[in-house]
Amino acid sequence: MHEPTYGSIQHLIEAEEQDRNTMKCVFKCPETGATAESSATISQGRGVKNVAKSAVKRSLFSSLRRAVSSTLYSTLGHSIAGRAASGVSQEMLSNTRQGTMYSSEDKQDAVVRAFDRVASKFRFDEDQGRWIGIPAGTVVETGFSKQLDAHPVSGRYEQGVLARMLVEIACADGTVSDDERAFLGDFIDPELGTIDDLATKAKLNSVDLEETVAGDVRETMLMIAWTAALSDDGLADTEKSRLAEHAAGLGVADDRAAEVRNLATSYLLEQAFGAAYPGGKRDDAAHAETMAYAAGLGVEAEDIQRADIRYRKRMGI
């Protein structure tokens, strides 16, 4: 297993921006064109020299949540890809909206962790001794990505409702744990409200949900809510009930709501296998954890095996 270092990914950094205590990055492979946008919180005092010490075995669920937060980052109002594409220099981006002063090592550490979230889109090349992008032709567009791309949650009102949906599910048992707060805070735009502020709001009612733009965007909102809920270890009955209430309020029919949940499940299974084959090599412990997770999602054993094989075929493993 190859842990990414700043040196091994530096050539992939197309843009990096410090936004308060977060590093937002765009990674692009100059050879294959593979591109990914990600972010990570800056931690003072960690530094690149301490990364190896903290490279303890990561759990499947932390890997899943890193992937989910990266995927949903731009969905809920964040994006720097547009500014990078417009020709704004990397130096300018990295020096804007800094707020608290962090060392260059602290910021480099955050960039490495941001890359780690999207590492499944890259592989480590032994000959070159660095990470390269997986060619676009080998990445099959999934139902999840098709739904997200075709019907994005782009309206500010809809983003606000979605943020409240996610927080409501997280605190369905009455409280928001520190882990949940950190997870949601990683991709919910603070301009939509802090996690604690959103948690104190009245529960979304039928009017709130009916005022979202009609059509398939509502299905995307429900798909994202299922994705966040299923990325944790275990789904409480209170969470299931709130998701069912959201589906009803959004006017998503039961059969379509089930299909949307399946899209979320398939996406998470894809991310889980990415964690099981870090850098293109199988990690036996992570693979076993992935198989158990898939079974817990209700996926049939034969379908899990097929998903494993298809993932390896796509990745050339």
CATH architecture of the largest domain: Orthogonal Bundle
Give the amount of beta strand, in percent: 5-15%
Helix content: 40-55%
Query: How many distinct helices?
Result: 16
CATH class of the largest domain: Mainly Alpha
Radius of gyration: 19 Å
Strand order of the largest sheet: 1-2-3
Backbone shape: globular
Structural class: mainly alpha
What are the low-pLDDT stretches, counting only 5+ consecutive residues below 50? 48-57, 81-98
User: Could you say how many structural domains there are in total?
Assistant: 2
CATH topology of the largest domain, by name, is: TerB-like
Order of helices and strands: HEEEHHHHHEEHHHHHHHHHH
Straight-line distance between termini: 14 Å
Number of strands: 5
Major sheet size, sense and barrel closure? 3 strands, antiparallel
